Amino acid sequence: LVIIDEVHLAKNTHKKFWDKLKITNPKAKIIGVTATDYDLDKDFFPNRVYKKTLKELTDQGYLCPVIMKEGKEKYDLDKIRVTAGEFNLKDIEDQNTDQKIIAQAKDLLEKTQNRKYILVMCVTIDHAEQICERVNGFIYHSKLHKDEKLRKFESWKSEGGFLVSVLALST
Length: 171
Fold this sequence. Notes:
With 171 residues, the chain is an alpha/beta fold. It has helices spanning 12-24, 54-59, 89-94, 98-111, 125-135, 146-159, and strands at residues 2-5, 30-33, 82-83, 86-87, 117-122, 138-140, 161-166. A 3-stranded parallel sheet has the order 5-7-6, sandwiched between helices. The protein has a two-stranded parallel sheet with strand order 1-2. Helix 4 (98-111) packs across helix 5. The protein is globular, with a radius of gyration of 20 Å.
């Protein structure tokens, strides 16, 4: 039995592995799990056994309601290249002037006055550090040691406020 977590990320590499495994062990079974099934490879995993929607999970109390607040500051998407299907982070970072970051932080503080927990998604670690400093939040990114990440996350859970993240806690 092979279990693949975050199966929505399973692409050709996993399929090739599976094809070879089936030759070696024709009785092998595979289970894929994900909470992000919108990008699921239907050829690799054609049968869904169990599904819960975000609404169902929220209604049942497993998830808190998500409240999205769009910021005033915008990026000029015409000046941002797409690299390997994703916006080019360097191009986005080039648009993060001090004035834009100050405006982003001010906008965050204004729009979230009545919120206990605020998750802020930033583009780069430098961007996150600048925002975090201006909103007095907890920073969370891949370069932190796992113990430090856990400590910051637990502090945020107990104290509330801003958790400023870079490419983490997003899927």
